[in-house]
Amino acid sequence: MKEYLSFGAGVNSTALMLLLLDQDIEFEAVYVDPGTEWPETYDYLNYLKSLGYEFTWLKPWVEGENNLYDYLVKWKILPSVFVRCCTAKFKTGPFYEYIETPATVYIGYDFGESTRRHVKKIDQVAYKFPLIEKGITRERCKDIIKDHKLKVPRKSGCWFCPFQGLNGFMRLRNKYPTLYQMVMHLEETNPKGFTILKNKPLSGYWQDNKLLDYLEAAPE
Q1: Which domain holds residue 189?
Q2: In terms of CB atoms within 10 Å, which end of the chain has fewer, N or C?
Q3: 132-166: per-residue pLDDT in tens?
Q4: Are residues 67 and 167 in the same domain?
Q5: Same domain, 124 and 166
Q6: How do strand 103-106 and strand 205-206 relate by DSSP bridges?
Q7: Orientation angle between helical segments 11-22 and 138-147, nearest 10 degrees
């Protein structure tokens, strides 16, 4: 039975990759590239490659598009905290199309995410959650990466993900103005506007089709 690591190049999956290598487990790390990760994530992927770490880098092809942003603009879809079609089409879907069954898939949920063991039910696919089983928290994951003399990656995710909250969009505006303008164009393609998960300690949701106005007025 072949074993795979669902690799996102973030803190948890990087730490899990290192732990599996330390245990001499034979596995294939698979990274599915939606084309819209934060630039730091691509830098980190290339950094790992330069150090000799091996992983499969997949580019999905979905309804004529190999980039999630282009797909969303084409179909006038906004990413939503309620309907996560982005993940299904440009992450998990291509991953499960690629792997060979029967298979074991390692998932990098940490101990603080013990209740997240929600995975796609697929025939002949078994799942393992070593970080949860070993009681390894996200902070411990960072320590594991540092212990291997590696840089700690940023949290993986797309630069227009609504789960990043308003702070994430303000960071995008200030650090990556070109990508910020692309987010504004994406919002203009859909009259409903973004639904953004508010920043802690606030709770609930914010939706008034004025993300552009809010960010333009927010201090840098």
Answers
A1: 162-217
A2: C
A3: 999 999 999 999 999 999 999 999 999 998 888 77
A4: no
A5: no
A6: unpaired
A7: 50
